[in-house]
Design brief:
The protein has about 300 residues and is mainly α. About 50% of the residues lie in helices and about 10% in strands. The strands form two sheets. Strands 1-2 form a two-stranded antiparallel sheet. A two-stranded antiparallel ribbon has the order 3-4.
């Protein structure tokens, strides 16, 4: 019996599989038993820890009783950054602790959270919460100076990139436009590819290459590089129209996509034609009232 009704099942063949010897499965059995014992031990330990907290033990007392190692982190943002130490990198385990910590308050009891289900846990307590405020300039002066230099350089780089793009779009050869500038630039890269070649393997297409497929021939555009590393000047020299007539799989896939779109379009047109032929009119107020009744949000009279 199933939700659909009754089924008649007939056994056509029974195939016996020879049992493995103990020697063949010893490693597998040892791994299963070991994993089971670890999971049981971890479950017992978590219950013990939670009981200690319920009985009023502090984090330090619990750590001493269970002979665990207690570590303290600096004041950290939710994403694991240390404002006073830019080189600090939070571990994946600490990032999970931070997620739970930022959902807690300083008055909450110590908490036990799961890092890896059944394998790894962490117990934490919040020692201090620093109110959101701009840090003292003296502590972040190096960071401010770096960002100021990057921002100023980015403005200048953008202006220079725009001037290059303007000259190239005006008809000047790329080599000539580059020769007019006094800035040392990376070597020019020439790329020739089709959409299919770029999309092969399912990898993400680099933004400068993707930009080329939305540009007009003999034009140039600028594009900001990631992490304020500068600006790209993308110049499109030639557009070669694609010819998929020899690619049967592409033609068939495209035709299949159009079938789905056309089916939806025909359905909508058919419904619209019926409404027009029958003179259907929509009562917006009645429809809204019915929706509210079905959703259970209608006010009682």
């Amino acid at each position: 019996k199933s939700p659909l009704g009754w089924h008649v099942v007939r056994v056509v063949q029974v195939k016996s599989i020879k049992a493995k010897s103990l020697a063949d499965v010893r490693t597998e059995i040892v791994n299963i038993v070991t994993r089971d014992k670890i999971e049981r031990a971890m479950a017992d330990l978590t219950v013990t820890i939670e009981d200690e907290f319920a009985n009023g033990s502090t984090l330090s007392e619990m750590v001493a009783a269970q002979k665990l190692k207690l570590e303290s982190s600096p004041l950290l943002l939710a994403d694991g950054r240390d404002v006073e130490n830019q080189s600090f990198q939070a571990s994946p385990e600490l990032l999970k602790v931070l997620q739970a910590a930022y959902a807690s308050t300083a008055d909450d009891d110590p908490q036990l959270i799961e890092i890896i289900p059944g394998q790894q846990y962490a117990v934490f307590d919040i020692a201090d919460i620093a109110p959101s405020a701009p840090p003292p300039l003296a502590k972040i002066s190096e960071l401010v100076n770096r960002d100021y230099i990057l921002n100023t350089a980015s403005f200048k780089a953008k202006a220079y990139a725009d001037s290059l793009a303007k000259r190239i779009s005006g008809g000047m050869a790329i080599s000539g436009a580059l020769a007019q500038g006094k800035v040392s630039l990376p070597q020019q890269q020439r790329i020739s590819a089709t959409r299919a070649e770029l999309a092969k393997g399912g990898e993400k297409v680099p933004p400068p290459l993707a930009l080329m497929f939305s540009m007009a021939q003999k034009t140039a555009k600028t594009l900001k590089a990631p992490q304020d590393q500068g600006w790209f000047v993308v110049a499109l020299d030639t557009i070669v129209p694609g010819d998929a007539s020899g690619r049967k799989e592409i033609v068939e896939a495209t035709a299949q996509q159009f079938k789905q779109v056309l089916a939806t379009e025909y359905t909508e047109q058919f419904i619209a034609a019926m409404k027009k032929d029958l003179g259907v009119k929509r009562n917006a107020s009645a429809i809204s009232t019915l929706k509210n009744q079905l959703a259970g949000t209608a006010s009682a009279n």
